[in-house]
Amino acid sequence: MMNNKNVIFCGNNADFLREELTKESNEANGGVAFRIPSIVNANGTLVAVSDRQSCGMDWGYIELVVRRSEDGGKTWSNVESIATPPARATKKSAECFASSFFINPCMTVAKNGDIVLITNFYPESKGIHNEKLLDKKKIPYTSVSGEFCPVIYDRDGNFYSVRKDGSVFDKSNTKTSYRVEGIGNLYKNDEYYGNIYLNGAMGKNELNAETTFGAKIKAPKRSYVFMIKSSDNGKTWSTPVDITPMILDEKDGTFLGVSAGTGVTNKNGRIIMPLYTKKDALSIYSDDNGETWHRTRNQKYNEVRGEWVPAISPDGSIFAFGMQNKYKKTPLSISRNDSNNWNKLSPTDLYSPNCQKSVITLGDYVLCSHPSEKKREKGIISVGKFRIKGTQAVGIDWVGHQKINDGFFAYSSLVKIDNDNIGVLYESEPSSYIEFKTFKISDLI
């Protein structure tokens, strides 16, 4: 049974959300548009993150924002930005993409208590929605003394490498007077030279964001994977750091996607995060609370392109729930060695359309939030119990479900609040309306 309901993120523009719902937008929860929820319990504090968008699409000016609850989801802090992309123009229109952008947050809580968040970052473009704008032939990184460094290019095709301290070296490995600071800010000596992730001059700024202009030396246009951390339960966050060179494969092309929602941290402290390419799924992991990352390279289970979600079973195995391309059973695989490699299982009897899911485990039980119709409608929490053979989990038997809503239902994120309650953060409109509901565990299992 539902305990409470809160609108955590609410759009204020009737172009992207039904006008009667925009009236619920306020200083605490508002912005032009929102999508893609992620929530974790960080040492008793619920931390909810979302994309805050300029146009209700997967491009334009998109920052990551956070709200926090210290009372189990009853009250929430005002919305704050935690990752702001470089932009040279902002408009409340899908026609404007004169901005870099963050998209698809995925969080977990590390063994040391830090919140670790990974997300995709794109230079000024439409991301995967217009691949003609991406740089398929430009190499994004080069190896220098055993360390991969970002590569940037001038208009004549000359390339430069950016070292860890931000200094810029030319192709003959000579240090130049350029340096890069923050998220792509280029300087020559002490003079600001624009941003390497943008093109052209500053334009109209409808969002009152901080804007700048594009540098003449630029990073390749492609997807990057950035990481940010919080060591104080979501109050403050680190500057986003590019972790792409640790995990990129040359076969990925211009797209390496972060699966939105949450990753997992196992009992040994290994963080496992879900990613995917156009061809298959993959996992990355960190054994040092997110400082360094490694890629698992033989995860072949996802039958179609799409996002997936991990869940840890009672015996420590990791079950991976894939995304199907139409309404049918959910692809499933398993790792019994902390995600070092994976084995494909038969699809599990969890029916859902083409949509991201969220999964958490509670002892012998697994909970999954997802739409239950052939379209993204009628959200439910499916309740499953791990099937044990000997001492190993070998599958899942689905034993019931709990209704979340009757209407539109898309991306979601589950969280355990305490020993008595769980919560779900979910999209109940195609854009700009993200709700949070709590349920008693005793009503589910």
Describe the structure.
With 445 residues, this protein is mainly beta. 2% of the residues lie in helices and 46% in strands. The strands form seven sheets. It has a seven-stranded antiparallel beta sheet, with no helix packed on it. Strand 32 and strand 33 form a beta hairpin. It is globular and about 65 Å long. The two termini are 12 Å apart.
Structural class by helix and strand composition:
mainly beta
Low-confidence stretches: none
| Tally of contiguous helical segments | 2
Name the helicity range: under 10%
Global geometry: globular
Radius of gyration: 22 Å
Can you count the beta strands?
34
Strand arrangement, major sheet: 9-10-11-12-13-14-15
β content, as a range? over 45%
Gap between N and C termini: 12 Å
Overall pLDDT metric: 94
Report the sheet with the most strands, covering strand number, pairing sense and barrel closure. 7 strands, antiparallel
